[in-house]
Amino acid sequence: MKKNLLMLSLISMLSLTIAGCGDNDISDQSVPSNPVDNSSDNQFEESSSSKDIYESISDESYKGEIDDDYTGLIPEKVLNANVSIDFLVYIEGQDGYITDIGNYSPDPNDTTYRYHKDDVTSIEMAKYFGAASAFKKLAPNVKINLRYCSIGDYDYTLKDYVGMHNGSLPHLMWGTRHVVEQLSDGYCYDLSRYADSEYYQQYNEYFMSRFNFGGFQAGLPIAGEPWGVFVNLNNLEEYSIVSDVVDETLQQNTDAYKEWVDNFTWDNFVSAVDRSTNDTHAGLSRVVEYFTSYSVPSINSQFIANGSVDISSSEVINTITKLLNYEQTLSQNCVYMYDMTSTGHTAKDNFPNAKNWLGTQNFVVDQYCTFYAEAPWALTTISQYAKEHSSNIKADFLPYPKLDADTSAYSGIAVEGLTVGNQCPIGTVCTEDKQLEMDVAAYFAMFMGLDPRAIQARSEVTYNFNGTDFTGDLALPITKRGSKFSFQTENPDLDPAIDYVDNWTYQMKKWFDVYDLYVIADENGNKDADVEYFSNITYGLVKMLDSVYMLDGIGDDYVTCLNYWNEPVAVPDIDSEDEKTKDIFANWCGRFTRFIDKDTQTGTLGTDSYVTTVIARLAEIENEINDNTNIAWLFLQECVDNMYGSGKYDVLDRSYRNSYEGALPN
């Protein structure tokens, strides 16, 4: 391996597919028409910069004070810090820079604050504003400055920032690449420094383990998103797929619907898609790669367990052949066309409003299709559209189809993480100022994801997206179940630590308050989510939550939840002139169009030769994954040795990543 391949430049950073696998579809990234700052100047400025869009408003306008009751679990040096922290994120379709985002109020008439809902133009931005506003009440002299750009501009923006700041990285990053790839570039600060804090110890161990490499905690979880299939419940009745799907007067799902979910096999799924397809309606929005990957345990589960796959046995080949034929059938019943010239990117004539970037809207508002899976991470977005657009849709979120009635169901999970930019790379002196900046960034990240005061503020944040007002942005809980902070026990009257059992329950309750599409209303139309027994939550979502959290009292029939998103899957591409890396799953994940015959334009999904073409390449796909997996781990070890000190971290020791109960499939 060439030594200089280890020192990947900022210019050569990988682009991220939203799942780390599949086509580069960004159909559900928010694209507002009125971004806060659409300046063509792509550079970070200091917080006092003349580029600040609110430069005419004094920084003294914020009147918050430290909470005298209890500041929480944050060191005094952080609470008293007078620093500016730069936070670089991607928000598709937007580009701008906003200083001191904690200077925000959901009340548009409160002129004490600089920012209000019209300044927050996407759901992605909302959580940062909400959390920063709660954090600033504890640390009033800390400024969180938000820089955001589109996915395709992230690498350039990061490179530009480093150039403008004498080689220093942004203090906090939500990047377009996986945390493990940022680690290989030396961008990450080892967050195990904070292992003794109550915040750190409250994280769900499995979520944390996805970012731990030989003891190096490269990221902090910000969200754990289950992956599956959305279904329009209205259509199950309309097309006689399941009768009497939801009986709202009983505040529970019907036995018929539960049986259908429990028996959501490929046969039943493809049949439902076919039965609900006609001239004005499609059974499925678009075929996605994840269906088959999560229905064939030998692809994902074996890779997670031991880094290799076996898809050469006759039994597996027969299974994959069957599933590829299902994919071929599904491609004929979609909103989008699949043929030699258009593989899922051109809408059919009878769906005039369908656009690649409007997937959630087309599913919720237009209700073009019965099933939707091209953006499985859109749990929250779909609920927001249903609420704000007064849609009559009733929807649920299901695990991926099972192979057959005798096999287990699988779902995916994407654990997203924040990284603290390493301000003290090897060979440099780490000053007290630099260390304080990293401490502030780390505690803000932990506060944002775990503290009930941040959760409350995030549930109340208001924002305007494309002329529509929205309220709230929350993730599913990333904390352990049954846990409380010490200050909550000692201060039972501290708001918002009132009238709830634990932090997990509190956040789950808030989540359903904001995203009530999945709560079945009672006879009076009330939607008060039962987060103890989940009796009035749509049954498919209960199964998904069970797969992530192993819920007590729900049953023993767990759905197996798989995550290979945070595994090292990139290896040096020695054939690349600019020394980029390549994804070892590229052929499998890109099979819809990967093996096209240039002369005949066949081999793509939708053509007669699709199945035979992919089957003929299975041995190549298997060898690609197996041959490169060890290289990927060795590559990471070399990078870590070079960037953080030789012998300091043994990333080849995967015991911590596989030690938690949920880390490996059953």
Tags for this model:
single chain; 666 residues; alpha+beta; seven-stranded mixed beta sheet; four-stranded mixed beta sheet; 23 helices; 33% helix; 13% strand; globular
Entry summary:
With 666 residues, this protein is α+β, with helices and mostly antiparallel strands. It is globular, with a radius of gyration of 24 Å.
Outline the structure in words.
This protein has 666 residues and is of the alpha+beta class. The protein is 33% helix and 13% strand. The protein contains 23 helices and 21 strands. Strand 5 (212-213) and strand 6 form a beta hairpin. Helix 2 packs across helix 15 (432-450), helix 2 crosses helix 16 and helix 16 (452-460) packs parallel to helix 18 (503-514). The protein starts with 75 loop residues before the first helix and ends in a 22-residue tail after the last helix.
Task: Note the quaternary state here.
Answer: single chain
- Output the radius of gyration: 24 Å
Secondary-structure-based class equals alpha+beta
Distance between the termini: 36 Å
User: Strand content of the residues, in percent?
Assistant: 5-15%
Residues in helix, %: 25-40%
Main beta sheet, described?
7 strands, mixed
Query: Helix tally?
Result: 23
Q: What overall geometry do the principal axes of the alpha carbons give?
A: globular
Mean pLDDT: 82
Contiguous runs where pLDDT drops below 50 for at least 5 residues: 1-70
Total number of beta strands: 21
